[in-house]
Amino acid sequence: MKIIEGSRGFSAPAGISLTIGNFDGVHLGHRELLRRTVARAREQGLPAVAFTFVPHPIRFFTPKARFYEITTPEEKAARMEELGIDALVVESFTGEIGGMGPEEFARSVIHERMRARFVTVGYDFTFGRNRTGSPAMLSRIGRELGFAVDVVPPLLRGGAIVSSSRIRELLLAGRVREAEELLCGPYKVSGPVVPGAARGRKLGFPTANVQYAQELLPLPGVYVVDAEVGGRLRRGVANVGFNPTFGENSLGVEVHLLDFQGDLYGQQMAVYFRDRVRDERKFKSVDELVRQIEKDVGYARAARLPGRKGEAGESGARRREAGGS
What's the rounded Cα separation, in Å, for the pair 182 and 68? Predict the structure, then answer.
């Protein structure tokens, strides 16, 4: 898949099948947009192209907003490629784009620069200055300029619409199993394993401290996780939090891998959150903490979670990353 910086650098004289959005999380609803875009592209012999913005428009209009993106740009691009997108155009959301009226955006960007012949958007898609453009307006403009617009209706799960906002709320509430269903795979954080205080090793439960790249962490607490390192997926227990028993005040992710011995420093680790065990809390003594960790490990060892049958290897990790579970 090609990644192109800005619509001015894009060229497709014969036209394209295009979808536009932020695609944060590339969740079930986004996947339907991408699926339709790719299907139309294959039918017509055209490139399937996704168009997105950096930074997220929320950050442009309300820079002080408490906002966390679910996926990194690299994760977003990788998932789109797996779903069949041929090119991803990453438009810088600046004053030029943000200040365009909806008519100007549709004519200048979608029609003239992108040469879209088919455009797929969600039911809640807005565009142009002050978000005044709607799917109905885009359809009208498309009829004038010669491109067709496919509006995808809302997707419901559990009686509520699937959206990035809903997934953020679920993760911030620690409801990782529900978020996994909407994301088509477990929520993941990843990064290098870095040295920590080594308390876990002294307690008999060595942990890997992950210097994660993602903006969003689930609600502080203890989780059952699958951790991928060195091409292998292993069951583990992760603590997301501040280590209150030891008086720490910086948020971190520590992972204890079941039945593992070895040096992980410097290695890349991907941590997939599968289930929440309990809240983080302060213990009266180290012995009380150790007893609770033993219970947490027992819970993780006995957990039977969707998509995992026995020990998963590299292929299992790839299936999860691709959205299967």
Answer: 17
